[in-house]
Design brief:
2 copies of one chain form a homodimer. Chain A is of the alpha/beta class. The first copy, chain A, is built from 7 helices and 14 strands. Chain A is globular and about 55 Å long.
Chain lengths: 261, 261
Amino acid sequence: MAADFELTFLGTGTSVGVPVIGCECAVCRSDDPRNHRGRSSIHLRAGDTSLLVDAGPDLREQALRENLRRIDAVLFTHGHLDHVAGFDELRAFCWHRDTPLPMHGSRETLDTLRRMFGWAFDAANTYQGYVKPGPVEIDGPFHYGDLRISPLPVEHGRVDTMGFLFEAPGEPPVAYLPDVKRIPPDTLATLRNVDILIIDALRPDTHPTHMSVGEALAAIEEVGAASAWLTHLGHDNDHAALESTLPPNIRVAHDGLRIGG
Amino acid sequence: MAADFELTFLGTGTSVGVPVIGCECAVCRSDDPRNHRGRSSIHLRAGDTSLLVDAGPDLREQALRENLRRIDAVLFTHGHLDHVAGFDELRAFCWHRDTPLPMHGSRETLDTLRRMFGWAFDAANTYQGYVKPGPVEIDGPFHYGDLRISPLPVEHGRVDTMGFLFEAPGEPPVAYLPDVKRIPPDTLATLRNVDILIIDALRPDTHPTHMSVGEALAAIEEVGAASAWLTHLGHDNDHAALESTLPPNIRVAHDGLRIGG
């Protein structure tokens, strides 16, 4: 990829992160920093555009670690807490703006944000230190500069979530699907032969709302992705052990990993 | 204090923590680990009882750092995000219980939790991995074992918050007031001559909803506290510089500090 496109994995963990509080398993006690996983989120830089996907509970720590100082918009995959609980950390990205911070999501996700963080959406939210959200309902592809972003509706158990396809001129397209159990046909068609697929692979065993490692590998093959990164990983996945079982075009993501740049 | 009473400062920071995202000030760039402050919270161990006060956004990191594995109850001071955003991290403390996790707070605070995390309070919340809250409205002093806990209503700008007075047999009483602008007369009477007062001292300058350092020092004197710790500190407070200005019975708290034990 060219120097003007960079994707950073802010977090690659499942809803409780790794290590899990109170857990003594080998992965939770591991010295391998790639087994320390905050909640899943990515940051994208495309030219002058700086985008955050999801605002999970580890956002402050992730932003400090990666020295994020400016964000032009937040894209939300869905309203589960491991993707929105860091909403209030976004205030630091509102202080230097004259306009609300665009927050893109499905109607359902934006409704969840309004219900949880009602004060921020209220007309009475005039205190300059607070988050100033600019909700934008996603109803199709949209652009930031030259970057085209297409929503990828997928099924996450009984909840619909939205992955995103990022297409920048001269760059290999990248798709991000952190919370998915099943890819419906329309989204499968959009994804066909994508260059880079980042996909949920919670654990070796099946789970009602997330893809297992085996299901993720099957999806990567069905999509025909040229390469793939596994994310949203639980403590049943040891980084090195999991990666040793994968074909060379499929890798295991870890917090702080950058692609491109 | 005896070995069966231990108070740990899980976090001593203000709502955005220190360092502040994007800030270049000397405190935010400081190498002194005492200037790295997660959001304010304490843990109390009294005999066999393990209590958490507040569940802020840094709870997972704080619990891992302090190796917290069991909590008998959570006491909430109020419903602001820097004190409740870690609600979902409490699931790890519910997995090994047969009963809901008691959550003590004012009616207003419990209403905020129900509004933000409605799914957890819903009768349909039967999935074993989720937080199982047992809300308990505070209407006066209550006990866990020999530990007596008295609510300390205080004013935090336009919001009422609740501090707590902890009294264990044979131990010096400890009061915790992390978010306070004014102590009303009844609470002042309860606090009179307390041995250890832990109190909000946001910054040197005045603030509409928090005590400044000067206001905290005046309150400590008015209460007649034998000793005090300053907490809920912003990036205008350098640990060493602030402590150098204080009388010997008043100290600056920091994340990970333990009293007693």
